[in-house]
Amino acid sequence: MNTFDPVAHDFESFRAFPAGVAGRIRDAILTHIEADNDALILDVGAGTGRVGEAFVARGDRYVGVDLSGEMLARFGEKIHSPETQFPRLAQADARALPFADQAFDVVLLVHVVSNIPGWRRLVDESKRVLNRDGTLMVGQVSRPVDGLDARMNAQLDIIAESLGMPPRRSKTQKHDARRELASAAQSHSQVTTATWEATRSPALFLERKPTGGRFAALAPELRDEALAQLAAWAETTLGSIDAPIVEEHAFLCDFYRF
Hints:
- The protein has helices at about 20-30, 50-55, 70-80, 120-130, 150-160, 170-185, 200-210, 215, 220-240, and strands at about 40-45, 60-65, 90, 105-110, 130-140, 185-200, 245-255.
- Strand 1 (about 40-45), helix 2 (about 50-55) and strand 2 (about 60-65) form a beta-alpha-beta unit.
- A 7-stranded mixed beta sheet has the order 3-2-1-4-5-7-6, sandwiched between helices.
- Helices cover about 40% and strands about 25% of the residues.
- It has a domain at about 5-145 and about 170-195 and about 250-255: Vaccinia Virus protein VP39 (Rossmann fold), CATH 3.40.50.150.
- The protein is globular, with a radius of gyration of 19 Å.
- By secondary structure, it is an alpha/beta fold.
């Protein structure tokens, strides 16, 4: 069982984009790379379709892959309607894609580079299935560096270490991957494709955390102890854990052509 399978149903409860954001991301991507309607798009790590659903809704030639069959099942349930084509989805390891060389015009990597071990295999496979004139896009949500999530995650790392929990996968691999892609690319550009205001609170962070793959895989008693300590820290340090905090979030896309 994949670590994301148990949390697939609740994954988007705290992670869904505001209405219209996924569509703006889709439009900005295709406009920036000047893709036509026949472009064949591969979304690696498609998950529940937070980004992919906008491509499917617009009738694009879209294929989504993910290692979690449950996440893909949720994608299919969410998007399928009489007015919308059923998405073409495949359960597969991103480090061994079941596609021919140069099969796709666009490859999307959204929140996958920092979440998968063996990122070089992921990058190599993504480049292998991309045609010579194609574009590789690495996308992520950008939050304030001193925002609520950053502070809560930093404290959680301290608590996790004290409890002997396995560390988060190093974020350095995301930066390493971007540097390697930029050095190999003939062209590289970064574009902010959407911005929005997000309302956060420590309570929502604490509620969301168990629906992530890493935390869901922990023993319940260890997970509960870590979150209890984090809640106590937030109450003392940040004030009421229910107090809303409004932050500006953005979706950043890095485009690479090789």
